[in-house]
């Protein structure tokens, strides 16, 4: 059974790119366009990994991350931040908020596949 990745991303082009890359590598991709929908979908589907955009239209990705991590049924799910926030200190702040890894946009195909595979392996 393929591993399921929940991608929480409000930009349709970024979502399409991530979906194409991950599906090509054999993952099932679940999609949510905002933080509240993403948290609800994580609760319903319990994916193997979450890709979390930080800048979302309702609650931000850090709040959504904390809601997922604080849920006893979901806290084990690794969360990879997927963000354009690439200023000094952003990665540390994002990891301190509960994300397990960090990828800056624009997303590199190889970097995305590598971080997803590595993070899944570390949390297996």
From TrEMBL:
Pfam families named in the record: Response_reg
Record keywords, A-Z: Phosphoprotein
InterPro entries (UniProt xref): CheY-like_superfamily, Sig_transdc_resp-reg_receiver
SMART domains in alphabetical order: REC
Keyword Protein biosynthesis attributed: no
Classification via PANTHER family: HISTIDINE KINASE, HYBRID SIGNAL TRANSDUCTION HISTIDINE KINASE J
Name of protein: Response regulator
Organism of origin: Phototrophicus methaneseepsis
Taxonomic lineage from the root: Bacteria, Bacillati, Chloroflexota, Candidatus Thermofontia, Phototrophicales
């Amino acid at each position: 059974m393929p591993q399921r990745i929940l991608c929480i991303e409000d930009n349709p082009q970024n979502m399409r790119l991530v979906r194409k890359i991950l599906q090509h590598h054999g993952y099932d991709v679940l999609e949510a366009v905002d933080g509240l929908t993403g948290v609800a979908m994580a609760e319903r589907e319990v994916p193997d990994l979450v890709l979390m955009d930080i800048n979302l239209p309702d609650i931000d990705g850090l709040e959504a991350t904390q809601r997922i991590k604080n849920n006893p049924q979901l806290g084990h799910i690794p969360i990879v931040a997927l963000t354009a926030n690439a200023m000094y200190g952003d990665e540390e702040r994002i990891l301190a908020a509960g994300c397990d890894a960090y990828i800056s946009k624009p997303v590199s195909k190889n970097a995305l596949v590598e971080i997803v595979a590595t993070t899944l392996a570390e949390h297996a």
